[in-house]
Design a protein that fits this description.
Pfam families: HTH_1, LysR_substrate. By secondary structure, the protein is of the alpha/beta class. It folds into 3 domains: about 90 residues, Winged helix-like DNA-binding domain superfamily/Winged helix DNA-binding domain (Arc Repressor Mutant, subunit A), CATH 1.10.10.10; about 100 residues, D-Maltodextrin-Binding Protein, domain 2 (3-Layer(aba) Sandwich), CATH 3.40.190; about 100 residues, Periplasmic binding protein-like II (D-Maltodextrin-Binding Protein, domain 2), CATH 3.40.190.10. It has 10 helices and 11 strands. Strands 3, 4, 5, 6, 9, 10 and 11 form a 7-stranded mixed beta sheet that branches. A two-stranded antiparallel ribbon has the order 1-2. A two-stranded parallel sheet has the order 7-8. β3, α5 and β4 form a beta-alpha-beta unit. α1 crosses α4 and α5 packs antiparallel against α10. The two termini are about 30 Å apart. About 30% of the residues are buried.
């Protein structure tokens, strides 16, 4: 059937009812009486030709058809909002400030080089926008995205937060390293196993939530760090073992100051993602940056 303006109004009311959890719960959101809400749903059901929900003493629940209508209507209004944002960006000159959050020590990662391309394209398309680029450890970066201090955060996030959307960009390989002054530096990989490694001090990362320790089954790390430079310094001291991004450790490996241990067994692939608050309507500036980021990385918006 052709969608008319009346259908859009009825669908919006239906969405509000479902998201609120029932007719009574939606009253305050809609500012309508129960009888009026019921009449609107009945009108929508008549228009569609099937029942959308069950209501009564047993409570509120969707029919199979109602669930489909809810999902499709949700997509419809999300597309409408995206269209309106796009049109505003074409009509209005983009200005204001875009705050992007990055994690530390990714500039040497070949996988992250597209970020510079995205920034260059963004500046070309929105020359009047002020870019505010900040760097935080992953946990702090996640907090700043949640609080709205950062519009777009790019990081290998330690956990998934309900209400945030994530766009997968590129993987970062981490390997397990020792410094030149460590006893394992001259020991062949064939002679190194987990039991051997557990004899030594291992660095943990606050933001990895124990992922860097699970292979070694130790109760707690012998040192804790919040960034890559701190971990590299401990490894270079010769007193600790720990994980580092392969691209970041490369400079020290080539200088003969550290080496990877058992790269065939000890490695972690961290997925870098762009994150933003999906509960808030993004302004045209942030929308433009995300669109360019998706294009440059060949990514998909969830």
């Amino acid at each position: 059937m052709a969608i008319e303006q009346t259908d859009l109004k009825l669908l919006r009311i239906f969405l509000t009812i479902v998201e609120a959890g029932g007719f009574a719960a939606a009253q305050s959101d809609l500012n309508l009486s129960l009888s009026t809400i019921s009449s609107y749903v009945t009108a929508l059901e008549t228009r569609l030709g099937f029942s959308l929900c069950k209501r009564g003493r047993s409570g509120f629940s969707l029919t199979r058809e109602g669930q489909v209508v809810f999902e499709e209507a949700h997509r419809l209004f999300k597309s409408v909002a995206h269209y309106e944002t796009k049109m505003r960006s074409l009509r209005d000159k983009l200005n204001g400030t875009l705050t992007i959050g990055l994690t530390d020590n990714t500039i040497t990662d070949p996988g992250a080089r597209q970020i510079e391309r995205t920034i260059a394209r963004f500046v070309q398309k929105a020359p009047d926008v002020t870019l505010n680029v900040v760097t935080y450890p992953p946990n702090d970066l996640l907090r700043e995205v949640v609080t709205g201090a950062i519009q777009v955060g790019i990081c290998a996030f330690p956990k998934t937060v309900l209400g945030l959307s994530y766009i997968s960009l590129y993987p970062e390989m981490h390997r397990f390293y020792c410094g030149v002054d460590h006893p394992l530096y001259t020991q062949p990989d064939s002679e190194i196993d987990i039991d051997e490694i557990r004899r030594f001090r291992i660095v943990g990362r606050k933001f990895w939530l124990g992922r860097d320790l699970k292979d070694f089954a130790i109760a707690r790390p012998h040192a804790m760090v919040s960034d890559m430079e701190a971990e590299a310094r401990l490894i270079l001291s010769g007193a600790f073992l720990g994980y580092l991004p392969e691209h970041y450790a490369k400079q020290f490996v080539e200088a003969g100051r550290m080496r990877p241990i058992r790269p065939d067994q000890f490695f972690v692939e961290a997925l870098f993602q762009a994150s933003f608050d999906s509960n808030k309507q993004l302004d045209p500036v942030a929308e433009l940056f995300l669109d360019l980021l998706i294009e440059d990385f060949g990514a998909k918006r969830d």
